[in-house]
Design brief:
about 325 residues; homodimer; mainly alpha; about 75% helix; Farnesyl Diphosphate Synthase; Isoprenoid_synthase_dom_sf (chains A, B); Polyprenyl_synt_CS (chains A, B); two-stranded antiparallel sheet
């Protein structure tokens, strides 16, 4: 694959739906409001303070690619971002994270209690927005996605510290916790455009494959020395004993000494100062980052193939580029 | 008011909708299932292990009082219980409670992480059930209630440890965190029966007033020596610095020594061994339990009055008795 600047790949999409994205950001700010002031304060900390808006961008672009000319997709893209934000707030509580997107996490600033409750509020507000939109089909897709996300997160909890987790089960986790919302975000684009089932399915498959690729790359980056050089956090998954493909691949390929290291650090969580460095060394030695990125590239290719049912357009090209972006941001 | 055995008052309602309640309990168990086994395990701990099913009972009885003869209300009653259960799971995490209904709370047994995530699952599942039902009006009512619950809970967090909280603001908290779901549970009964707006409004008002009365009594019981005698937990609100009417009334009526006691224990949370006993003594001295129960009785009477638009029936009598039950359980 030729080198693509990841920022360029995403920017093409952002430029293409620039007006829709502005409208979506306005809807996000307007609809996270509440007479209970702590809610917009805390929500602003996480919703308004950054993030790439990747999931709402998918809804916006998918709808336009399907020829939709109305504005319903704007509020539905905001719904998707609210559901995502709610899960981030709850994830940070669950992971006891102190950082999110390089800033202090909401739970670190406002406390766990407020983060749980504002997550609940955003989740409920997302459903209110969907009800205003009035499509039971959209409600069906996004309520199923919300349930699947929670199932994926619980499954992740169950597999934590368990090196006997199979790759299949790991894929179930990331399909649930990440890819289900990508799939729903894309599918909704076809629904508002009233496209036939085959196009709904194609967009859902695109989003599912894209989401899996995205999470695989995320999981690889968590052990990437390059990320450490860039000043980004690495090793969160390692410290939490999360079972991800880099660890499973390094463990499977490791000798007895290496396996014993992984058992101590990941299964029993007995970690000392240099363990993360050693883990990263073993992961490089066993080619486990590359193995993970190769898997991601396969899913990204599948995502692009899912778009073949649509005629060529600037939107389709941009969505194909997003698949490249997902993989290239790791290089 | 004449003495009514609280159990009798609730039992009349339970007997009247016995078949519906059985069907609702079956729906609850069937629909909290998931291939991720920890979800039904944890949910069973809280959903199946007790509780009076008061909220779903309200939906069932309201629908029947409105002449509804179908079965949609059964699944919608299960939705109401799922939303309630999700908020209980999140509440216990927020409050760091170790007990729920006299048993170890889910967070104490399964951990905070699983409780947050299974709460999210039940919430999403509730919306899936509503989507299956297919009424946008029901979805509107229950998604608004869900947002209002979260607002009430956040407002409670904001008023915690703050003795300058007004009684009006305290009422806003309990309307949100408790009464909004009672109101929605009742209103949904009129919706499935396709009754005119006036009856929807009347049932929503009944539920709102009932819910306020219910929470006022709960807040009184948390300082009740009788409860302590019965082996039930008292003093949770006190220990958490929650601002409830018994405290506000005792603080308002207290002398300078008493106010200084409340400021130390509730505002700065500096509590020592005998403080709860002393708080209960001051609350009795200032007649604050009685003042709270009197307020509850007023709301219970308003709840009963809201039912006047409906013709007399066994269901209406049972719903009136529930209002009595709410108040009598404190006596």
């Amino acid at each position: 694959m030729k080198h693509i600047d990841p920022e360029d790949a995403l920017n093409a999409l952002v430029e293409l739906v620039a007006d829709d994205l502005l409208a979506c950001n306005r809807a996000i700010v307007a609809r996270m409001d509440s007479p209970v002031e702590l809610i917009p304060q805390l929500a602003a900390h996480i919703v308004a303070a950054g993030g790439k808006r990747l999931r709402p961008l998918l809804t916006l672009a998918a709808a336009r690619m399907c020829g939709y000319s109305g504005l319903r997709h704007v509020n539905l893209a905001a719904c998707v971002e609210f559901i995502h934000t709610a899960t981030l707030l709850h994830d940070d509580v669950v992971d006891e994270s102190l950082l999110r997107r390089g800033l202090a996490s909401a739970n670190a600033v406002f406390g766990n209690k407020a983060s749980v409750l504002v997550g609940d509020f955003l989740f409920a507000r997302a459903f209110q927005l969907m009800v205003e939109d009035g499509s039971l089909r959209v409600l069906e897709i996004l309520s199923r996605a919300a349930a699947t996300i929670a199932e994926g997160e619980v499954l992740q909890l169950v597999t934590q510290n368990d090196l006997s987790t199979t790759e299949e089960r790991y894929l179930d986790v990331i399909k649930g916790k990440t890819a289900a919302l990508f799939a729903a975000a894309c599918q909704v684009g076809a629904v508002v455009a009233a496209r036939p089932d085959a196009e709904e399915v194609a967009l859902a498959e695109y989003g599912m494959n894209l989401g899996i690729a995205f999470q695989l790359v995320d999981d690889a980056l968590d052990y990437s020395a390059d990320q450490a050089t860039l000043g980004k956090t690495v090793g969160d998954d390692f410290r939490e004993g999360k079972i991800t493909l880099p660890v499973l691949a390094a463990y499977a390929a490791g000798d007895e000494d290496e396996r014993s290291f992984w058992r101590r650090t990941v299964e029993t969580s007995e970690q000392v100062a240099d363990d993360l460095d050693h883990a990263m060394l073993l992961i490089v030695r066993r080619n486990a980052i590359q193995a993970t990125l190769d898997r991601a590239a396969t899913f990204a290719a599948a995502a692009k193939a899912s778009l073949e049912v649509f005629p060529d357009s600037a939107y389709r090209r941009a969505l194909r580029s997003v698949a490249d972006y997902t993989v290239c941001r790791a290089r």
